[in-house]
What does this fold into?
Amino acid sequence: MSKYKNVTFGQSEAIINKLGGEEGMNKFLRGELIVSEPTSKWRYHAGIIYATFVSDGTTGAEWIVRLEKKGIILTNYAKSMLLSDDFKPTKGVSYEIAILPGGMWDDKNRTTKNIKLEASKRNLIEPNAETSCFIREMFSDKDIEVMGLQWILTMHEPIKNSGGGPSLLGTYRYGDGSCLDADVDGSDSQWFRRGGFAFVSSQVVL
It folds into this structure.
């Protein structure tokens, strides 16, 4: 008699079928077939994309090297922001980010002001600029495409780029490769529908 009293015959058969029938079951019992839980870098909840990362103290200059080693293109504007004194990394902070898809607003209302207003209503907070680097490292262009997005803009406190404009760092998928770029921002700035807007839903110092 099995010790698993709540497992029905039908459930046992379904498990064997999931393993690929008797042959798959035998492989599993011999240790030739490994079963693991599916993992994802992000999750959806109520139309919002969530992901988690832990900051590691990487400086802006170190991010330039770290990302370029992975084949990611950094524009000159993005590099100038990473090298700015206003780019202040953290270490040992666990962040849960929330990405609001651009489809939440109609085209005329998709402004920085309205996006931040919606974030505030959802108790989301302004992220550190380093969040954009972790997003770029975490998500491939394919991941971003699966999300239904073309780019993810991190809604941090704007940092002046080398041209003098207050800008936001963003993760982009372009035809010529993965990119970390920058966009000049203002409260009335309007954004395209295919973008996502990253905020922080929670943060914990480890």
In short: The mean pLDDT is 91. The longest strand covers residues 91-101.
